[in-house]
Specification:
Blueprint lengths: L3 E3 L4 E4 L5 E3 L4 H67 L5 H36 L34 H22 L4 E4 L6 H17 L1 H69 L5 H35 L8
Parallel strand pairs: 2-4
Antiparallel strand pairs: 1-2, 3-4
């Protein structure tokens, strides 16, 4: 025989053999979905930290490659100045230039040598910072060369689909927060109705109706509290909706900025390479003219300095390009699968 009894306020208990809740008004269903959304939000939060760490490590690594390249460029320039000094000393002995030209060339060489030592220090400090980021004692960072790095810029020439923003952990966090608020609102609405707890398969219909009526009366008594809870849940859902929309807008702006930055840096790189070719030719020509007495040492010094500046600028622009690609990776929530 089954039985009907009153339990907690707003609950109807029927029978005595099997124990389960009849989720007529969706309380359990919405509670489970809200809990699942909470778990997804936690996973997205963890991925956000991981993506930031990957981007930070990549930034440190490529910064080392840039410093290495600047060091190599400065070393080559020192060697070039050594050759210039030998040439000018020979021209001075031949009476074709002055001691002032030789001294100026030596001063320029010393200036570049000073920059070499500064770069050594920066590399040492960068390696120590990299080791600290990895949580280890300082060690020699094994790495490649900047010129060996390749990136597929054409992948982004047509932009990226807006749907890719769903890969971003912060967008997923906001989405899951909205889902939790939505389910919480549903739970608040369901609280206006009694829970049906079935514990058997036989019951007295008349008794059940009496118990159900009593449970409904209890629910009506708690109507004021339930209304307040519902208003609060709806307000929180409205806030979560706004935050989700704002996270999408912010993500879109960040991705667009990163895309433009990558394209701009790539365009600057092309100009840098053309400029270096012209300046290399200018240096060669002024050196040749000086040897034949058709150019003075100031023209050679100026051409050599401009070439060094252009070469260092190219390295800086290359790092800017790489840094923007890293920013784009981070803005896309951990990259973009083109397949």
């Amino acid at each position: 025989n089954g039985s009907i009894s009153g339990g907690t306020p707003g609950t109807v208990t029927i029978g005595a053999d099997v124990n389960w809740d009849a989720d007529v008004f969706g309380k359990l269903r919405n509670t489970k979905k809200g809990a699942a959304a909470s778990v997804e939000e936690s996973i997205a939060s963890k991925q956000s930290v991981q993506n930031l760490l990957v981007a930070t490590i990549a930034g440190y690594y490529y910064n080392l490659l840039v410093l290495d390249e600047k060091l190599n460029t400065s070393r080559r320039t020192v060697e070039n100045w050594e050759e210039n000094i030998r040439t000018m000393e020979a021209l001075k002995r031949a009476g074709k230039t002055t001691e002032a030209a030789v001294l100026q060339a030596k001063a320029n060489r010393l200036d570049v040598q000073n920059n070499v030592y500064n770069l050594y220090q920066k590399i040492f400090e960068a390696e120590n910072s990299f080791a600290a980021l990895l949580g280890t004692v300082p060690f020699k960072i094994e790495r490649g060369k900047l010129g060996e790095q390749t990136f597929q810029h054409d992948y982004f020439s047509g932009g990226v689909p807006a749907a890719i923003l769903s890969n971003r952990p912060d967008v997923r966090q906001a989405e899951m927060a909205l889902a939790q608020a939505f389910y919480a609102t549903n739970i608040s609405r369901a609280s206006f109705y009694p829970s049906l707890k079935l514990t058997g398969d036989m019951f007295n219909p008349a008794g059940f109706i009496l118990q159900l009526t009593a449970a409904l009366s209890q629910q009506l008594y708690a109507k004021g509290v339930n209304k307040a809870n519902l208003r609060r849940a709806e307000a929180e859902q409205s806030i979560a909706t706004y935050q989700f929309r704002q996270s999408l807008l912010d993500a879109g702006v960040e991705v667009n900025n990163a895309l433009i930055a990558v394209k701009t840096a790539s365009s600057r790189m092309k100009i840098d390479r053309k400029q270096i070719v012209h300046l290399q030719a200018a240096v060669w020509n002024t050196q040749l003219l000086m040897k034949h007495g058709n150019a003075n040492y100031l023209e050679v010094l100026s051409a050599q300095q401009k070439l060094l500046q252009a070469e260092l600028a190219e390295v800086s622009d290359q790092f800017e390009e790489i840094r923007n690609i890293i920013n784009l990776y981070h803005a896309l929530g951990g990259g973009y699968d083109m397949e």
